Amino acid sequence: MYISETDFAVFLADAPLYSKVELFEDPNLDLKWELFTFLSEKAFKTYCPNDKEYHTFKLQKNYGQQFLFANANYDNNYFRKDGTFSFPFRIRSYCQFCNFPIDFMLDAFTLKPRGVSGEWPKVYIRKAGQLPAIQRRPDNDVYNYLTETDKDLYGKALSSLSHGYGIGAFAYLRRIVENEIKHIVADISELDYENALKVKDANEKFNRDHNMTNLIDCIYPLLPISLRDMGQNPLKILYQQTSEGIHQLSEEECISKAQHIDKLLQFVIRRTKSLKFEYQQVREALKELGK
C-alpha cells in the first residue's frame, strides 16, 4: 500500500528533478497516515558535495511537524478546484559523516480527485527541487577507469540525468559506450588468459574495418566467464540500446533507458577492472614463486 523504504531511498538519491513516484494508494476507508512520521530519519546514500564521496544521508527527525492523510478531518486548503490534491513542502537531510545539509523541495499530489466516499486515489511524491543542486558522478572505481574524454562526457550525462534532460543524457552515453567498449576490449586483449590472443586479433580487425557489431559478436564467446555469466552479451546490449534513434523516444523513455544503460556500463567496467587486477596479482604471485 505504501512505498517501501528502499524505493523511497532510491527516489531521493537517484530520481531526476520533476520526476515522481507513487507514495501510497488507499483502496479502503480507514486511512490514517502521517507524512512526516514516515519521512522522519529516512536514510539514503548519495554524493556529498562537501566530502566529494558517497555517504549516507538522513532526513531530519520529526519534531512535531505533522500532515495527516485521512478519510476525514483533512485539510481542504491543499485541494484544488478540480478535486485533486497538492501539498508542497521542504525537508532537510544531513550527511551522517560530516553533517552537510541537503534540502529537498517535495510535492505530495494526486492526479485524480478523492472518491465520493472519501478514499484517496494514488498519491505521488515529486522531487521539485534540491539545494545544493544535484551532483552526480560514478564511484571512483568506475570514474578512474574512464578515458579523460569520457570523464568529461560522463559528467555531462549525469548532470543531464539529474535535471531530467533524458535526451541529452542518452546522447552523451551513446558516445561514452562506443568509446568504452573499445577501451574494454583492448584491456581484455591484454589479459593473460587462453582467449586473449583471439580477442586481440578481433580488435586489430576492428581497427581496420571499424565494424563494431562484428567485433562485439566475435568476442562474446571469447570473453572471461565473469562477463558472460548473465546469459546475454552485455557489450551488445549496451551498443544496441545506445544505437537506437533518440528522436523516437520521449524524455521519460530516454531517462529510464539512460539510467539502465548507466548501471550496466558501470557493472561491465567494474568486472573488467577486477579482471585486470586479478590477473596482475596472479602474474606477480607466479613471478615471486618462480624465484
Helices and strands, with pairings:
Blueprint: H1 5-14, E1 20-24, E2 32-34, H2 35-39, E3 43-48, E4 53-59, E5 68-70, E6 86-95, E7 101-110, E8 123-131, H3 140-143, H4 148-162, H5 166-189, H6 196-209, H7 212-219, H8 234-243, H9 251-289
Antiparallel strand pairs: 1-8, 2-5, 3-4, 4-6, 6-7, 7-8
Helix pairs in contact: 4-5, 5-6, 5-8, 5-9, 6-7, 8-9
Structure, described:
44% of the residues lie in helices and 18% in strands. The chain is α+β, with helices and mostly antiparallel strands and 291 residues long. The longest helix is centred in the C-terminal third of the chain and has 39 residues, at 251-289. It is elongated, with a radius of gyration of 24 Å. The chain has a 6-stranded antiparallel β-sheet with strand order 1-8-7-6-4-3. Strands 2-5 form a two-stranded antiparallel ribbon. Helix 5 runs antiparallel to helix 8 (234-243).
